[in-house]
Design brief:
The chain is mainly α and about 190 residues long. About 45% of the residues lie in helices and about 5% in strands. The protein binds heme C.
Length: about 190
Amino acid sequence: MNQSNTKEVSLGHSYDGIQEYDNPLPGWWKWMFWGTIAFSPLYLMYYHNGTPGRSVADQYTEGVNENTRKQYAEIGDLQGDQATMVKFLKEPKWVGVGQAIFKANCVSCHGPEGGGNVGPNLCDDSFKHIKTLPDIVKVINEGVAGGAMPAWGNRFSHKNDAILVSIYVASLRGTNPSTGKAPDGSPIPAWPKD
Ligand code: HEC
């Protein structure tokens, strides 16, 4: 060993002619090692827990919400009346926004395709609490069955969310989910066309 920083202090261990020397890692290396370990909890706290900053997840949610608000500027504050719902049912872009809201909040109980799980099948013609399109908005905003179907009115960041997810629910009617629960409630008339 001819390296200048090698101290020729043998530890007296020798295996197959290979001798062990006492060459500790350089100080700067150890400082970096311990430094990164000391830094990691701060990093975790700041970026993952959001203390005291904002977590990456929060920043993402905020970004998504901001984007949605920009899109909502296009349609203003929707009313959950029949005419509005019939109109938006014909606009795939907004039904798609409703679908995204459904995927984020409703699939655990109603299944990924609305075929039902804990909650009822939303794809058939039978409903328990719904006769008209605006009834869907009411059920979603206020909940039913003592909270078994939770009230979403205060959970969504924008009032339009409840209306657009209702429009998506309305669009599920007549689709064939790969797994569907037996119908609940009783058959209701078809949605109005205009
Ligand atoms: C925690 C489980 C759960 C979640 C999450 C949930 N639901 Fe429900 N939902 C239910 C249950 C249970 C019922 C049936 C209540 C009853 O039997 O009266 C129901 C009923 C409904 C109904 C009325 C169906 C009918 O036959 O009248 C609609 C519409 C509905 N949910 C839509 C949604 C939407 C949209 C979301 C997401 C924003 C959602 N649900 C999230 C459990 C849930």
